[in-house]
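Supplementary Note 3. Input sequence used for the single-chain structure prediction.
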Amino acid sequence: MAVRPGTDQVPADPPVTAVIGGGIAGLAAATVLAERGVRVVLYEREPFLGGRVAGWPVTLPDGSRATMSRGFHAFFRQYYNLRALLRRVDPGLGMLTGLPDYPLRHSGGLRDSFRHVPRTPPWSALGFAALSPTFRLGDLLSLRPAAALPLLDVRTLRVHEDLDHVSADAFLDAVRFPEAARHLAFEVFSRSFFADPRELSAAEMALMFHIYFLGSSEGLLFDVPREPFPTALWEPLAGHLAQYGATLRTATPVETVHPVPDGGHLVVDASGTRLFDAVVLAMDTDGLKAVVGRSSRLGDSAWRDRIARLRTAAPFLVSRLWLDRPLDPTRPGFLGTSGYGALDNVSALARWEGEARRWAARTGGSVVELHAYAAPPATDRDTAERDLVEQLHRVYPETRRARVLAARHEWRADCPLFPVGGYVHRPTVRTPDPAVVVAGDLVRTDLPVALMERAATSGFLAANALLERWGVRGEEVWTVPDRGRSALLRALAARRRPRPRRGESSGKREHAGLE
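The predicted structure, written as discrete structure tokens, is reproduced below.
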């Protein structure tokens, strides 16, 4: 996505900007602004950076130190903007390492993998169906191709016009998608949003299908950090920001943000009040709702109402276990699971993370992480933690004999929910106040991005919106193409798409991408 022309740096008397939130979105915005000469103060309520990709130190019962986090994150190769951010501190991305496969396993015995799926669209989607054991001949014959045509030419605005009123579950019903493939493959997409498929917008699921299958040639293989998130990612990026004069104020939650009559905004925290020329709101859903709710003059009433209506997805659980014996050496570094109760995936951290590998080598044990997405509201936490470990024993029976030397269980409920019909109500980067912008994976960018990449992209867009006001060139943004890459499939999809009546907009909007 091309940026507006402008100077390389802000004028000699640089504006001062508050970036509220030290996750991916806030760090992306702060980095671009600081590199252009803006004086940046970044506020983060936690003592550490990274947001939902953060890590923090814990002490194990044997006195050794380790790092706990909020769970596994896959750094897909389509995450162009997140990778551009990380290249600031490691141009070759040596902090990441690729996992050889993305295996899936169902309790009924079905196994699947994305390793051998072709990466070139449309053969990626066709190859998955042909190679997957979850697609039998009878399943293929019973599919309703006409209902699936919206997947063949996904465009960000149009897909939400077409499918945001439908749940992911209802859409798959309409397609007559095979039950086994639905549980083993497509729910991977919906549950990565920490949402029940019956509540998730089908448009978001279709957008994910486009990003990974028909819109890019990188496929579904991914990278992971070689060391815990703080060491590999955020501490180096904090050093980069410091080199550009940014001030990082961790463990400093912001209370309110208020515009002042003569221009600028007052940012209030427990230590006092400071005047800024501009503000980036890069918080999670609850944090954004809380600050905006206390800031009665921020934006306008309609915008504040939109923020107040945002919803948070269901709680999720991350359990990390330090075991006294190793896993079977054939176990993959990451395994997606289905049919094992609430267990959604298992990570064998020593397969890629240096800290876990060193601990395992020293003790002869292993470090295992379990993830449960979208827990029902009435879930008893103690029971859920025990059940997750029991499911691990079913998946990897050798762990039944292992003694748990240490365990950490993290319950969180701070991921944005993308419900049916919610797209039009989500905030955009720009707000009614041109000096206030919003960033985060909750933001509507109208670009084909999701999850961590949406956070990084929105951070770049937020910085660009402010830099444009000051006549400064922004950061170039890259995405997968905002349309299907196959002309034949696009033509098929167009035959089923209703034409707008005279005076109506088709919603079409093109964005530059990687062609």
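Residues 34 and 244 are 6 Å apart (CA to CA). Residues 498-515 have pLDDT under 50 and may be disordered.
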